[in-house]
Design a protein that fits this description.
The complex is a heterodimer of chains A (452) and B (443). With 452 residues, chain A is of the alpha/beta class. Chain A contains 17 helices and 14 strands. In chain A, the strands form three sheets. Chain A has a five-stranded parallel β-sheet with strand order 12-11-10-13-14, with helices on both faces. A four-stranded parallel β-sheet of chain A has the order 3-2-4-5, sandwiched between helices. The relative contact order of chain A is 0.12. The mean pLDDT of chain A is 96. In chain B, the strands form three sheets. In chain B, strands 1-12-11-10-13-14 form a six-stranded mixed β-sheet, with helices on both faces. In chain B, strands 3-2-4-5 form a four-stranded parallel β-sheet, sandwiched between helices. Chain B has a four-stranded parallel β-sheet with strand order 7-6-8-9, sandwiched between helices. Chain B is built from 17 helices and 14 strands. The chains are: A alpha/beta (452), B alpha/beta (443).
Chain lengths: 452, 443
């Protein structure tokens, strides 16, 4: 289908083809959906929020609410202050959230709307809250927008005078509700008192109950966000999505944080569990899970060994998937993210060094068109990433295992983890199945075996 | 949960037999509403996207390009070029220093490798705000390369989705105007069908059956070469009125091509459409063919849907779609299936379409413009709707409420147009309404 993609690679500096990222506002919107009774609000044209809601609905198969300032020509000339004031009043009047989380857009940033001033000047009911984050679409990606919105909540709400609560603040990263559930389950097994922020579980995987709840029973409560200031320490899972808000929490409330990789695969889960457990020790149940993962990795090892793959998606996720594929004995050949940032290249290359992989191409701010061109010049056995790899998979006849964001063409993925030992088992199973299905499809009749 | 409706929204909602005043529509959304609507860019993009061999370059930050990458569901019989995403991915420095240079480079990079005949350049919100002269860049590129490089003025804030439709139509006119001098040909253009699930092919087959050549299609399965013949057509047949009446009017003015509205949704409307086209274009022979063909196909479609009638009769439907013309057809189509419409709304319906709807539906039906999820929920519950017909944002809302759903938008997987579509539609409505899954829903 992608006969357009030429094998010969030509220099491109201005044209982006088949992006591997989206814009900041959609990340900000997803972040805000992880706060209880929160209405995300897009300060921009109406199309932005319509696209973001559609995009999130296509991934989660759930309603995704958000309001819009609905910019008109007038607003883009005279500023969007009046629109925002009217919007905030209307939102509280009719949708009755406890908090509105405003994020900006390329338009409102370019015309210079001052959200701090607008919000200070606004009549906000006593028991209600409005927070904001600056998320122009021409900076970073949906991942930085996610981080920015979390920082916005912290700047407005985290209470530096909160009494110490002995809890650990955990930033779970830009992951699915299923991943957040798994992270919470592990923390629960460790017996660790925590505040998980944000928490889209229960919101973006709300159970079917024959009622539509605009604010489902999930999300981090406003009180908990305030109490982040009283936490003893913080764990940020994923440098790109959580480093900034954890840093802001430390700066504002003196809560020391440690940034860990997203717990994808064996080693990253080990360090998460070890770090979270501290001196508390790891319960047998988790040790057993780890043992089962190891068992699976050993059993299936021959099918992974030296298989090449391309990994693409969001930076923290891709770093985790790279680590796990190396642990499985695979050889990542192309590793890209659309999100800009040298840290991605540094983190990924450090992993590759550890496993003596010297021939992999690693690139941030890359796009799927160039990935496709690389693959045309040097194919791989497996694609690991988002649904947008589907076209390459079809064109080059390479199996695709879907992980990360977005997955638009499959069901159930958002309920299931890829983090933790159990998430790693699921990933290993999906990847082994893809490789082995391919072997079965392609092998000669005499090589076809019931036992593998 | 929501017992009240925003004061500003009250005139956009009415009940068919109670409120005499015309509905408030074709206005901007209320700030702060959780609207189901999109923007100017979105309107322009969906209209032009199905032109299969054009480069569609989105000039702006990445979002506008990423959200519209291969999402339309429009099928192609030739090039698959349009299913890629091209943009200038504007960065902060471009916003500060201007993005025109980057746009010029992007066009150069396309031309150097592909040398296409046609490029559309979409100017998004900030292209205008930062003062990029997109038209000048396009003019210069046309001069340099001799290909058509057409700007699409689509800043999101400059109106609503309908404005975007107009901007797309203007871009199409820019493409066609240099080709006005053509000998008249015996044939029609089909406007406002986007070949979702192959629907344009269905309509083209009907034209073939009755012996009416199709010259150009706007824009389902369109290509540069085929579009250029459009000024020679004898008649424009407008399927999606919301997006294409403006183009039809302009083509009438510029090329003298008369046009008709025609809906291919439901047996009644499909039959009317085919016969009307035959009347206006054909010989007595064409009319006879149309008569025979529509009679035969109507009977066949009626027979094919008959098995569903028992399980669907008496069920109540809610409709929330983009334009009013489609909504009208759907009300009729549900009636053919023995179902009653209890709620009907659109994102961008026109006043005259709402007037038709008001007369068409049964007393007590709720009619609403630019509805939000809370309103849809409230009225679907009040009216006891069994199924909602809508687009992607409405699907999970319906499911959460325990209401069946049928996608009549970009995510439809089966053709819903024509006689073929009648059966597909009945099957899809039935499989959702009568799914065994509902047995397990409590509440």
């Amino acid at each position: 289908m992608l006969e357009l993609t030429p094998k010969t690679i030509t220099e491109r500096s201005a044209l982006r083809v088949n992006p591997c990222k989206s814009c900041q506002p959609v990340g900000a919107l997803y972040a805000a959906l992880g706060v209880r009774r929160c209405m995300p609000h897009s300060h921009g044209s109406q199309g932005c929020v319509s696209y973001h809601r559609t995009f999130l609905t296509r991934h989660f198969k759930e309603p995704a609410i958000a309001a819009s300032s609905s910019f008109t020509e007038g607003a883009s000339v005279f500023g969007g202050g009046a629109n925002l004031r009217a919007a905030v009043k209307n939102i509280f009047d009719i949708y009755d959230p406890d908090i509105i989380a405003v994020h900006t857009t390329c338009l409102s940033e370019t015309i210079g709307d001052d959200l701090n001033a607008y919000i200070l000047d606004m009549d906000i009911p006593d028991d209600k809250i409005v927070v904001h984050a600056n998320t122009p679409s021409y900076v970073g990606s949906h991942i930085t927008g996610y981080a920015g919105m979390l920082s916005g909540f912290i700047r407005y709400l985290a209470d530096r005078r909160a009494s110490p609560n002995g809890k650990t603040a955990v930033f779970p990263g830009f992951v699915n509700p299923g991943d957040i559930r798994e992270i919470k389950r592990i923390l629960h097994l460790l017996g660790l008192p925590v505040i998980v922020f944000p928490d889209q579980s229960g919101v973006m995987d709300a159970p079917m109950s024959n009622t539509y709840r605009m604010y489902p029973e999930g999300g981090t409560s406003i009180d908990d966000i305030r109490s982040l200031g009283g936490c003893g320490r913080a764990l940020a899972l994923g440098n790109f999505a959580c480093g900034q808000p954890a840093g802001d929490l430390e700066e504002k409330c003196k809560v020391a944080y440690k940034c860990l990789p997203l717990p994808i695969g064996m080693e990253a889960t080990d360090s998460f569990v070890t770090e979270a457990a501290g001196s508390g020790g790891v319960p047998q149940e988790l040790e057993d899970e780890r043992g089962r993962l190891l068992d699976l990795m050993l059993d299936a090892n021959p099918y992974f060994y030296n298989k090449t793959l391309a990994i693409f998606g969001d930076p923290d996720t891709v770093v985790g998937l790279t680590a796990f594929s190396l642990e499985l004995g695979m050889r990542p050949r192309y590793i890209i993210t659309g999100t800009p940032g040298d840290a991605f290249v540094r983190q990924t290359e450090a992993l590759l060094d550890k496993y003596d992989v010297t021939d992999a191409v690693v690139k941030a701010a890359a796009d799927l068109f160039e990935l496709h061109q690389w693959i045309k010049n040097g194919p791989v056995d497996l694609l690991l990433g988002t649904s947008y790899g589907k076209q390459i998979a079809k064109a080059e006849d390479i199996p695709l295992v879907r992980a990360g964001f977005p997955v638009l063409d499959r069901y159930g993925h958002s309920y299931m983890p890829i983090v933790g030992y159990q998430g790693a088992m699921r990933l290993a199973e999906m990847m082994a199945n893809a490789l082995m299905d391919r072997y079965d499809r392609d092998c000669a009749d005499e090589d076809m075996d019931i036992v593998m | 949960m929501y017992t009240h409706v925003l004061e500003e929204r009250k005139n956009s909602i009415k009940t068919s037999d109670r409120d005499a005043a015309p509905i408030r529509c074709e206005t901007a959304s209320v700030s702060g509403a959780v609207s189901q609507r999109a923007c100017v860019y979105c309107g322009a993009r969906v209209v032009l996207n199905p032109i299969t061999d054009a480069f569609h370059i989105v000039h702006g930050p990445i979002g506008c390009a990423s959200y519209t990458w291969d999402i339309r569901g429009s099928l192609s019989s030739g090039s698959e070029l349009y299913r890629n995403s091209f943009s200038t991915d504007l960065q902060e420095k471009d916003v500060v220093f201007g993005g025109a240079k980057k746009l010029t480079s992007a066009i150069d990079e396309v031309m150097n490798v592909y040398a296409p005949k046609l490029i559309f350049v979409y100017a998004t919100c900030i292209a205008g705000v930062i003062g990029d002269d997109v038209e000048a860049v396009c003019r210069e590129a046309e001069r340099k390369y001799g290909s058509r490089v057409i700007p699409v003025k689509a800043p999101g804030f400059s109106g609503n989705k309908s404005t975007g439709y107009r901007m797309a139509c203007d871009a199409l006119m820019q493409l066609l105007l240099p080709h006005r001098e053509q000998a008249a040909a015996d044939g029609v253009n089909i406007l406002g069908d986007y070949n979702l699930a192959g629907e344009m092919w269905i309509i083209k087959n009907y034209m073939k059956e009755i012996g009416v050549p199709v010259i150009s299609t706007f824009t389902g399965d369109a290509s540069y070469d085929r579009l250029l013949g459009a000024p020679s057509a004898r008649l424009n047949v407008v399927q999606c009125a919301g997006s294409m009446i403006y183009l039809a009017e302009r083509m009438e003015m510029e090329f003298g091509i008369p046009w008709i509205k025609a809906s291919f949704f439901g047996i009644e409307d499909t039959t009317t459409a085919i016969r009307q086209i035959a009347d206006l274009t054909g010989s007595p022979e064409t009319r006879r063919k149309a008569e025979a063909f529509t009679r035969r196909e109507s009977e066949r479609a009626t027979a094919l849907t008959a098995p569903y009638h028992k399980s669907l009769a008496g069920k109540k439907a809610a409709i929330f779609v983009g334009g009013g013309f489609k909504a009208i057809s759907l009300v009729r189509q549900f009636r053919e299936m023995g179902m009653e419409t209890v709620l009907v709304g659109t994102q961008t319906g026109k006043a005259d379409e709402y007037e038709v709807l008001g007369k068409l539906v049964s007393p007590g039906t709720v009619i609403l413009d630019d509805a939000n999820p809370a309103e849809l929920e409230k009225f679907m519950r009040e009216k006891g709707a069994d199924i909602l017909v809508g687009g992607v944002k409405e699907r999970p809302l319906a499911y959460k409420l325990g209401i069946a759903f049928c996608d009549h938008n970009h995510e439809r997987k089966h053709a819903l147009a024509g006689y073929e579509g009648v059966e597909n539609f009945a099957r899809e409505v039935n499989l959702s309404v009568n799914s065994p899954v509902w047995h397990y829903a409590r509440g």
